[in-house]
Amino acid sequence: MKITAAVVNHVNAPYQLETLELTALRQDEVRVRLVASGICHSDEAIRVGDEEYFFPAVLGHEGAGIVEEVGSAVNGVKAGDHVLMSYAYCGHCHPCRQGHPSHCQDWGMMNAGGFRADGSAIHLKPDGSKVSNMFFQSSFATYAHTAFNNLIVVDKSADLRLVAPLGCGLLTGSSTVFNGLKPQPGSTIAIFGTGAVGLAAMMAAKISGCRQIVAVDIHDSRLALARELGATDVINSAREDVAGTIASLTQGHGVNYAIDTTGVSAVMKSALDALAIGGTLVPVALTRHDLTFNPLRHLIASSKRIVGVLMGDAIPQVSVPQLIDWHQRGLFPFEKLVKFYDFADINQAREDSAKGVTIKPVLIIDKSYSV
Ligand SMILES: NC(=O)c1ccc[n+]([C@@H]2O[C@H](COP(=O)([O-])OP(=O)(O)OC[C@H]3O[C@@H](n4cnc5c(N)ncnc54)[C@H](O)[C@@H]3O)[C@@H](O)[C@H]2O)c1
Ligand SMILES: [Zn+2]
Ligand SMILES: [Zn+2]
């Protein structure tokens, strides 16, 4: 069938709305009619070539929509269900069975491989050439072919436009705290970069009972929002000395936990330096930059840890409903991060996010949708 998709034709190319062929639905796939999609920084990282990818590509991995057709081998979801899409996982390898689907042994192939396991493409150009997909959903499009494990069925009373971005950035930020760090109540945390991932981490730190939550960014507007959402202290690192300020805020001890969402080498290093003895750093950014440190001086001597956490180590079908529940109870007010754009304005939305004007752009793909 013919669909409209925002295609990136090569590294650094703008998104271009094109008509593509969505190849026949396989028996283990589900067709979703997109209502909305968030834009995550990872879409941008791929577009600008921070991560190697196959182009042309249809990006987008925070889709929300309505199930239209279900392959004959799929159980547990039906046409008409309202769904969010998160990442893909096999569900039957050892890490999946142990409850860590983001450790799935096929994670890279399924989410960043661009094609089905047999190498075929879900999307084709009119001339029959292959277009790659992202996260087995490619949500910057009017329709997606995805897999059952990508789906989170939500109540029809949930506004699909608002909850769309829960599938990646907000899930990652919050779950990095809940599952990756599991902070002790009364502990201290610093979050470097207060975009969507950082602010979600901050709200989760507050829910977890962290006593001191320090937010670091270079945009005053983002820091003002960070304060509104629960930061006890904010630091504009473009003007202030981060190390000195964190030391004085913590009586010279440093913080128990740090998360870096910037991917900037110097910022990742300052996050490591900001840790107290025995503290843990999680760097989450998709970045081409390295973090350089001396194992003895910067890690062993102070019993610090650096931990890799993908997608917050979350099971999306468990964590997303929990985020919706916290949102309904006013504990996870992520609507303050969201700004809506028409699908056709995807390049403007991307630019606003890169400039720091918009924290979480959400594209409205089906303008006729209402709750
Ligand atoms: N590990 C994962 O599973 C996973 C999942 C989703 C996103 N990500 C990655 O997380 C990162 C953050 O995503 P996001 O959507 O929140 O991005 P974002 O662009 O909205 O946020 C990044 C923030 O860092 C700030 N920043 C940039 N340079 C800085 C500096 N030198 N000092 C202080 N602050 C600085 C920006 O102002 C911005 O507020 C991205 O790299 C994204 O690709 C990782
Ligand atoms: Zn698996
Ligand atoms: Zn993402």
Q: How many β-strand runs?
A: 18
CATH C-level class of the largest domain:
Alpha Beta
Amount of beta strand: 25-35%
Work out the helix count.
12
Total individual domains? 2
Q: Please state the CA-atom Rg, rounded to the nearest Å.
A: 20 Å
Can you describe what's shown?
There is one protein chain. The longest helix has 13 residues, at 169-181. Strands 3, 5, 6, 9, 10, 17 and 18 form a seven-stranded mixed beta sheet that branches. Strands 13-12-11-14-15-16 form a six-stranded parallel beta sheet, sandwiched between helices. Strands 4-1-2-7-8 form a five-stranded antiparallel beta sheet, with no helix packed on it. Helix 5 crosses helix 6 (196-207). The protein folds into two domains: 2-167 and 333-364, Medium-chain alcohol dehydrogenases, catalytic domain (Quinone Oxidoreductase, Chain A, domain 1), CATH 3.90.180.10; 170-311, Rossmann fold. It is α/β, with parallel strands linked by helices and 371 residues long. The protein contains twelve helices and 18 strands. The two termini are 27 Å apart. Bound molecules: nicotinamide-adenine-dinucleotide (NAD) and zinc ion (2 copies). Residues 40-42, 45, 168-169, 172, 192-198, 216-219, 222, 237, 261-264, 267, 284-287, 310-311, 356, 359 line the site of nicotinamide-adenine-dinucleotide.
